[in-house]
Amino acid sequence: MPERLNARVEACYQQSEAFFKQRFERPQVSFRLRGQKAGVAHLQENLLRFNPQLYRENSEHFLRQTVAHEVAHLIAHRVFGPHIQPHGAEWRLIMQGVYELPPERCHSYAITRRQRTLYLYRCACTERDFPFTARRHALVRKGRRYLCRSCRTTLVFTGQQRVE
Predict the structure, then answer these.
(1) Residue 152 sits in which domain range?
(2) Entry pTM
(3) DSSP class of 45
(4) Is position 45 annotated as part of the catalytic site?
(5) Residues 82 and 123 grouped into a single domain
């Protein structure tokens, strides 16, 4: 899987070098991105992160559009400096003028949401449940307290969970 994506990153860099007539340092490429984002360019670190799940499910479009989109961020940063808008004129110039691709800001890949467990908390003043994420529940177990906005008493875990 990474071979084709790395080859596409290299091809985008070669196109950019031919267009701007200068050499660009190659970025580190990572496949450690989850969630809704298809890719992220870390400008200061010269790092590209890609979502392997979205790549597997949309490989052709991902290689053509998403990889170029993220590389264009790094190239725009190197050529035009740090004070440009993320999807501004400079980035659009690279997408259209260098890669001959539409300057689409967002992908439209279908995203499958993972099931998540919510931990139900309650307050003494109401019968209403307060669903906590696993992260917030873990913080409570480490000693953090969350208060009811109405009566200011500590919310207490009911022992119940809900899967969404």
Answers:
(1) 117-163
(2) 0.72
(3) T
(4) no
(5) no
